[in-house]
Amino acid sequence: MCGICGYIHFRELNMQVLKNMNQTIHYRGPDDEGYYLDYLRDGRQIGMAQRRLSVLDLSADGHQPMSTSDGNITVVFNGEIYNFLSLKKQLQDMGYCFSSNTDTEIILYAYQQWGIDCVKQFNGMFAFALFDKRSDEVYLVRDRLGIKPLYYYSDGAGVVFASELKPILQYPYFNKDIEMGSLKLYLYRQYITGPATIYKNVFKLEPGYILKLSGKSQTLICYWSVEDVYRNRNIYEGSFADAGRDLKKLLSDAVRLRMISDVPLGGFLSGGIDSSLVVSVMQEQSSRPVKTFTVGFYEEQYNEAPYAKEVAQYLGTDHYEEYISIEDAKKYIADIPLYYDEPMADASQIATMLLSKITKKHVTVSLSGDGGDELFCGYDRYSNYLEYRKYMPVSRLLSCLAQIIPLKALFKEMGWRRLQKLIHLSSVDETINSNYLAYWDMHTGLVAGNEDMHKYMNILKLDDNIQVKFMLQDLKTFLPDDILTKVDRASMSVSLEVRVPLLDYRIVEFALSLPHNYRYYKGEGKRVMRELLYQYVPQKLVDRPKKGFCVPVGRWIREDYKNFAQDYFDEDYIRRQGLFDCKEISRIVHNFRLGNDEQSTREFWSLYVFQRWYEQYIR
Q1: How many whole angstroms separate alpha carbon 129 and alpha carbon 78?
Q2: Second label for 164, Cα 20 to 30 Å away, from 367, 418, 482, 614?
Q3: The domain 233-378+468-540: what is its CATH number?
Q4: 316 pLDDT exceeds 50?
Q5: What whole-number distance in Å separates Cα of residue 293 and Cα of residue 412?
Q6: Phi, psi at residue 132, to the nearest 5°?
Q7: What is 2-224's CATH superfamily?
Q8: Residues facing residue 217 across a β-bridge
């Protein structure tokens, strides 16, 4: 697990620039650093750098950038190739010799043997840049689900890439121009969906994509996508019991691969279905108690630690829990823009940072249960739509009236959130997207510009089942751009590697092939996962409503508004900033301070996080 960065362009830069870029992400890899400079035949300079967190082969043999023995192929790599041992055996049988026990070296010789299509054979989480000196081609590659991040900036003279945005900001010719469409998208969703970022001309390499740089051309190649998998799937024909057995087999192998490590390893445990199932399989495969970790809060309404402890005791894990007061957690607000260098307002990021810090005291690698909700219909919003659907006739009537009477504005002013939902319910696209935060029209007066926000909806129209639409949308957007980004930044801020067995691509493809009633049945999601988990722990220990993983950010700021936020929303500050309408800002701040509803808190929190980010990176 590491951080990588670099550039390919016609402007010559000295080594210090590359070092400055790399140092901004030192926390991603505290164990080693490395640099590579060379020239392409057309005169372009290539620079590649890496910060290493040693997990496999802790010796100097794992140093990056790493090259083939003839020096023709060089790579910088962030992540893990879990099936590297089987690939290594295959390549050795073909005559290749290896000088290390790292998965990085596998990338080099797999590419030498199969070309860039080798990526299709990798089972893992990865982002890497590979330079082929023979053809003067550079490839940027990201894993299928987007577990590991990769950004790139293109300015006409070349391309700059990095694991985070901070190294790109060190590029001397970078222009920190905010992309206004992305700002609107952020205020709507509380995060920015790829390939967009908050900056103009900076993009996320999307999951399952390769960016090929050859001469002056840039070619995006999709080697795996949720759309293609779902479109080309063969519907699973086995019984429900068969599905449980097949899932157990897949998950057992996915966990086995992710428990290969040369450093101490453990697992996040919340006591919920996903993490409990992953830890159960870990303990089943371990000859000693697995280390498990939970963060607890003294305030009962936020605390899931007792549930995790019960599961840990039943499974016999070596369990660690650390309690922290909500007031102490408040201190982590200041760190959000430092590690989340693009605006992101998922408040559970604070609790995730706390959990990562606690875990890192004991291990360097942790497994998590992320992905279960998106794959097996676990979120409440998948069910909530079914409840709202009974009001469809009222929705159609209100939608028609809204064409004549300004009902949206009226309901907005009166804080009638449910009636706002009803107006939009007749549109499936609006309904699916609205469950993230608000509707497109909630912020039309807040940010200047005429961008058509509907282009960002990206609904995958592959199934008539509304719940499947929700799931596919979440796999494409919410999972990589919120959940996985949150975990990557929180864990890497303390140099902790987090592995995600439920997002083994074989499990993803299996889940998408299942009949929907194997996932959702009689008002309950995760059907096949639940039945499998009950083989490990009693049903009573895990069947309970979700509490989530959030903290009361709204209450904190409301109680100490002057110290926390007042300066960021001063009218003179807003006018100098030139991004927002002062009247709309005033309305949002007023509603938030009154403490009217959850919606006003979310609106304000999104703005507040943006202002903190703006203060650190733009002003």
Answers
A1: 9
A2: 367
A3: 3.40.50.620
A4: yes
A5: 42
A6: -105, 105
A7: Aminohydrolase, N-terminal nucleophile (Ntn) domain (3.60.20.10)
A8: 214
Q: How far is CA 104 from CA 228, 385, 598, in A?
A: 28, 45, 46
Distance (Å, whole) CA 221 – CA 353? 34
Residue keyed to tokens 């080309």: 232
DSSP assignments along 87-112, one per residue: HHHHHHHTT---SSS-SHHHHHHHHH
Cα dihedral sign, 218-224-226-232: positive
Three-state DSSP state, 73: strand
Please say if the pLDDT value at position 436 is more than 50. no
* Closest alpha carbon to 165 in 277, 291, 24: 24
User: Is the per-residue pLDDT at 413 higher than 60?
Assistant: no
Distance CA 252, CA 250 (A): 5
Q: Which residues are catalytic, by number?
A: 2
Tell me how far apart the alpha carbons of residues 75 and 108 are, in angstroms, rounded to a whole number: 7
Tokens of 448: 């200047």
274: Cβ–Cβ under 8 A, 6 or more apart, which residues? 369, 370, 371, 372, 373, 378, 502, 526, 529
Q: How confident is the model at residue 530 (pLDDT cuts 50, 70, 90)?
A: very high
SS3 202: strand
